[in-house]
Amino acid sequence: MQLPETLEVKGMKVLTTKQVAEAYGTTPDVIGYNYRYNKERYKEGKHYIMLEKQALREYKITNVEIQRSLPKISKLYLWTEKGALLHAKSLNTDKAWETYDYLVDFYFRAKEEKRVEEKKEVVPTETTVKPFKALKAATERVVDIPENGKAQELISDMKKYITGMEALLDIYDMYLPEAEFKNIAEAINKMSNKINTTAHFLRFLKPKMVTKYL
User: Fold this and answer.
1) Hey, what's the torsion of the CAs at 176, 177, 179, 182, to 10 degrees?
2) CB 131 within 8 A of CB 121
C-alpha cells in the first residue's frame, strides 16, 4: 500500500480520520461513528489529539494538505498509533489488521537512517603513544544487537505487541457486555502468547561478537 502523507503534532506521528479510513478501506463516516459509539475508550492525548480554534488555525498554516482537503472543519481529530489500533479493532477486518501492522512498521515507527561517522585511525608515534593506548583500552568486543537484522525485527515486533497489549488492557478495564468481555479476554491471551513467543526468540538469539570503539 502507499503510505499516507506524514503528519506530526506534539512530536508524534498521527493520521487524520480521512487517512485512517482510506488505509482501512472504509469511509470517514464509519471511523467517526466507531469513535462516537466507543467514545469512552478513547483518551485524548493517548489515542487522539483534537485541534480547534487557534491551535487548528496554526496547524493549518503549516500543513497545506489539511488546508486543501479539510478547508472548513472546526475540529480536527488526529489519531495516534494507539488510536489507529482501536479503530482496527472496531472494524475487525483482515484488511484493517494487516494495514495496522504495516502502518506501525513503516509509518508510525519508520526508522531514520543511521549516519555512521568514520573514525580516524590513530597512528602511534612517539608523541601519540599514550593517546593510542587509551584508544585501545576503549575498544571492546560486544554483541551486535544494534546491527543484527533478526534482533531488530524481534525488538520491533515486541514493541508492537506491547503497544497492542496496553490498548487491549485499556478496553478490558471498562464496563463491558459479557460477550465483548470474553472477546477482549481472548485477544489478551493471544497477544500474551505473541509476547511470550517473541521473548523466547530474543532470549535464545545468538548474536555475533564485533569489535567496537565505545
Assistant:
1) 30
2) no
Query: Cβ contacts of residue 32 below 8 Å, gap of 6+?
Result: 17
Q: Coil, strand or helix: which one is 214?
A: coil
27-75 pLDDT, tens digit per residue, is: 999 999 999 998 888 999 999 999 998 888 888 887 777 777 676 788 8
Confirm if 145 and 203 have CB atoms less than 8 A apart: no
Q: Could you give the 3-state DSSP secondary structure of residue 203?
A: helix
Q: Alpha-carbon Rg of the chain, whole angstroms? A: 23
**Residues 51 and 74: beta-carbon distance below 8 Å:** no
Q: Which of 174, 29, 25, 11 is nearest to 80 (CA)?
A: 11
CA dist., res. 78 & res. 50, Å (int):
6
How do strand 12-16 and strand 75-79 relate by DSSP bridges? Answer: antiparallel
Amino acid letter, residue 6: T
Handedness of CA 27, 32, 34, 35 (dihedral sign): positive
pTM of the model: 0.58
